[in-house]
Design brief:
5-stranded mixed barrel, 7-stranded mixed beta sheet, 32% helix, pyruvate-formate lyase- activating enzyme, OB fold (Dihydrolipoamide Acetyltransferase, E2P), Rossmann fold, disordered N terminus, 482 residues, 23 strands, alpha/beta
Length: 482
């Protein structure tokens, strides 16, 4: 997607599929045994990228690498990148420029560009960024050992071939930088939706679903290792569909969701991201039937105007979206809802922008990811529609969207005062080690005093809410769960 992104203050905890972050370096003491080669990995972008980094780490460990937090100690520096918007790529280019110091310190250092930006730019990046030694797309991580050896032999190496089959189902991800409580499980790769603003189908290829047995085995292993929450990841989880060629049996997303929930009532299950044109009543009824399937859906609306939605090639209208919201709230009245919104898409008028504000008023989202549109090369919008909304209008409309969402986020939290929620403890509060933090089923962050209890991350507790901000529910422990 080609977007300028702003977060609502209500966003906390595990976020939706395209959250932008500053580069994050990974290191795990569990895998830091002394070995001959050291790697430093920095990740940008969405949860899919962070999940991919765990696959990359697994491949590198098999090749004899350990990990370091200091890039100056590394033999290999990998940037796992995002191509969602121009600003994301600019950050990576600036980071590459900063790595010149590390290269000067260690002339033998191998620098690799991974992921979506690598896929978009392909071999051209070797000419644009002289520091880069290898370029690897999202479907070529298995090839890393051979590519690294090629660089060690003095070559520049590239593999950006996209696959119709690769799901990395047989590679056990290394849970780097994990809190030991929550984990992501990739259930599919690629995307077939072809939204006109989005670059993902070109950087991650066609949609393919992973064998459900491998997904369930990964979830069971995580639970047995002490994890208490998994998030099933896909660009569009509702289109998950796996057919066993030997038996002819199929598993859809509702079936996968239920089977994951049945692993244990103590294992919470979340998912991201849903698509308004594909989310079914079967999925909603499955969610409602199982206490441990969290009552939270991220359902990107993008625009409240049907004509703009058609230009975006979203596959639904304003009326369709509102009908899906009605079904969600009929089947699960307590379901949390978040969304993505784009301001200033091609040809958007002030009246069409007002339609976006009005759909926000109609739904009252708990959280939102808010963007100003910016054109991305290669997308249908870039080829077909002029980027004709002024930057001033984009920013003005985005500011209005943010202001309204901030109001809704606060309004969403205030009715929770006095209620008691089951909370899964994830760790200490960001502000104080004297407080625990965790999320309720609706994906709202809850903070409460640690007190003198023997609680630990991974425990379930019941917390009564006493105050609330736009981003956080603040309460008091009332009892300990199972």
């Amino acid at each position: 997607m080609a977007l300028e992104k702003v977060f609502s203050p209500a966003l906390s905890g595990i976020q939706a599929h395209d959250e932008m972050r500053q580069g994050e370096a990974y290191f795990s003491s569990e895998i830091s045994e002394i070995k001959s080669k050291k790697a430093f990995i920095e990740t940008y972008g969405c949860q899919m990228n962070f999940s991919d980094t765990e696959i990359i780490a697994s491949v590198l460990i098999q090749e004899g690498f350990s990990f370091t937090q200091n890039e100056l100690e590394a033999d290999l520096v990998l940037l796992n990148t995002c191509a969602i918007r121009e600003n994301a790529e600019t950050k990576v280019r600036n980071r590459l420029n900063a790595l010149k110091t590390a290269k000067k310190h260690n002339p033998g250092l191998i620098v690799g560009l991974m992921g979506c930006m690598a896929e978009r730019l392909k071999a051209n990046v070797l000419e644009q960024e002289q520091l880069v030694d290898l370029v690897v797309g999202p479907d070529a991580y298995r090839d890393l050992p051979k590519l690294i050896r090629g660089v060690e032999d003095g070559q520049k190496m590239v593999n950006v071939l996209l696959s119709r089959e690769e799901t990395y189902a047989d590679i056990a991800p290394v849970r780097l930088h994990s809190n030991g409580v929550t984990a992501f499980i990739s259930i599919m790769r690629g995307c077939d939706n072809m939204c006109s603003f989005c670059v993902v189908p070109f950087t991650r290829g066609r949609e393919r679903s992973r064998d459900p047995e491998s997904i369930l085995a990964e979830a069971k292993s995580l639970f047995e290792s002490g994890y208490r929450e998994v998030t099933l990841l896909g660009q569009n989880v509702d289109s998950y569909l796996y057919t066993n060629e030997e038996t002819g049996t199929t598993v859809n997303f509702a079936g996968l969701l239920e089977r994951t929930a049945l692993i244990s009532p103590l294992l919470r299950v979340r998912f991201s991201t849903s698509h308004p044109k594909d989310i079914t009543d079967e999925v909603l009824h499955t969610m409602a039937a199982h206490h441990n399937i969290c009552k939270y859906i991220h359902l990107p609306v993008q625009s409240g105007n049907s004509d703009i939605l058609e230009k975006m090639n979203r596959g639904y209208s304003r009326e369709w979206y509102l009908e899906r919201i009605t079904r969600i709230r009929t089947i699960m009245p307590d379901c949390g809802l978040s969304t993505d919104i784009i301001s200033g898409f091609c040809s958007e008028t002030e009246a069409q922008h007002q339609d976006t504000l009005s759909i926000m008023e109609a739904v009252h989202f708990d959280f939102a990811y808010m963007f100003a549109y910016s054109e991305r090369p290669g997308t249908l919008a870039a080829r077909k529609y002029p980027d004709d909304v002024s930057e001033a209008d984009k920013k003005k409309r985005l500011a209005e969207i943010i202001e309204l969402q901030n109001i809704h986020s606060k309004q969403s939290n205030l009715p929770d005062i006095g209620k008691t929620f089951e909370v899964l403890i994830e760790g200490f509060s960001k502000k104080s080690d004297n407080d625990w933090c965790g999320r309720n089923s609706q994906n709202k962050m809850v903070v409460f005093p640690r007190g003198n209890s023997e609680l630990k991350p991974g425990d379930y507790v019941y917390v009564t809410i006493e105050t609330a901000t736009k981003a956080t529910l603040i309460g008091t422990l009332v009892s300990i769960g199972e």
